[in-house]
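Morning run. Coffee first, then this:
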Amino acid sequence: MNDFFITKENTWKDVDKGISRQITNYNKDLMMVKVKFEKGAIGYKHHHIHSQASYVASGKFEVTIDNNTKTLETGDTFFANPNLVHGVECIEAGVLIDVFNPVREDFLSQ
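And here it is:
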């Protein structure tokens, strides 16, 4: 955890086929993560105890939250309440900025 995050000084971690993640910063209550998707990559449906707000920094995604699906593009956002099943499919290569409360301890241990 630092006050500042410099992108070029930090690495990306491959987390699934066509998906990589870069943790930008966090404390015990809040975490921000960049997630890069190649076209066709799937963030499989899952759920967790965290509140999640996501901003589409670039690209186009089909986002499903609790069986409700919308197509989101650059500048759009979505919010997944704790324990709701959600996932994304990348339609056009892009990046999501995910914010979690509390911190995703599972990301730090990987």
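The helical segments are 105-108. Good start to the day.
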